[in-house]
Structures are given as C-alpha cells and as structure tokens.
Write a structure and sequence with these properties.
single chain; alpha/beta; 4-stranded parallel sheet; 5 helices; 4 strands; globular; 19% strand
C-alpha cells in the first residue's frame, strides 16, 4: 500500500478537526484509496494544549515544550517544508501576513501539495499562490 504523509500547520478548530478526521477515519480512507495517510507532524505554538483539546497524541506535535516561541515554531515549519518524506502540508494558521504567504510559497516551491482553508489569503494573494 502506498503511503502519503501529511503535516498540519496550526492546530486550532480547523487543524485539530483535520487531525481528528485523519486519526479517526484513517483505516477507512486507506481501504478506499489504497493509500495509507499518516500525520507526519503538527506545528502549533501551544502543542500541549492543542493535543489535550483535540485528543491528539502529543508525539505528533513538533517540540517537547508545552508552548513554543514564534522562532521555535518557525524552525519546525521550515523543517517540515524541507522534509522530503512529507507529501502534503495543510495550512490552518489563518491570516494574510507576508510571513504566512512566504510559508505557503515555500511549501509549493518544495514541490509539496498545499491545502488551505484560508479564504482571505487566497483573496489577497491567490494569483501569486
């Protein structure tokens, strides 16, 4: 069976929901698609809180601290982008900052699939993305 590895950036309501669906329905999705979809990493500034809130195993989150600095979070995001074993990045951070736009563009430059629910970013920078 093929394998498809997913990273999630941000684990609020949307990111946590995506993670829960992949964890809860992973076997069913694998049977239908003949592809094992695996959560590779989740990058979130509050990993302990998000893990508890959504019932997600803590080891799926980047870092070991309960909270990450923006610098630490950015370092983990860059590692996710550079990881050749990750096929898809789900962006659920939100907003239209240049920082986030650069992340999205770098994901695409790394030849990874990108999924976002960020309508504001697409409205402001859709042509660029």
């Amino acid at each position: 069976m093929k394998s498809f590895r997913v990273a999630i950036l941000g684990c609020g309501t949307v990111g946590g929901g995506v993670a829960r669906i992949l964890l809860d329905l992973g076997k069913q999705i694998a049977q239908r698609s003949e592809t094992n979809i695996e959560i590779a990493k989740i990058a979130d500034i509050f990993p302990a809180k998000s893990a508890q809130r959504h019932g997600i195993p803590r080891e799926l989150f980047c870092g070991t601290a309960d909270e990450l600095t923006k610098e630490e979070s950015n370092k983990f995001i860059q590692e996710i982008i550079a990881d050749p074993t990750i096929d898809l990045v789900v962006e659920t951070i939100g907003g239209t900052s240049q920082f986030l736009l650069n992340i999205m563009l770098n994901v695409l430059k790394a030849k990874k699939h990108l999924v976002t629910a960020n309508k504001a970013m697409l409205a402001h920078h859709g042509d660029e993305i």
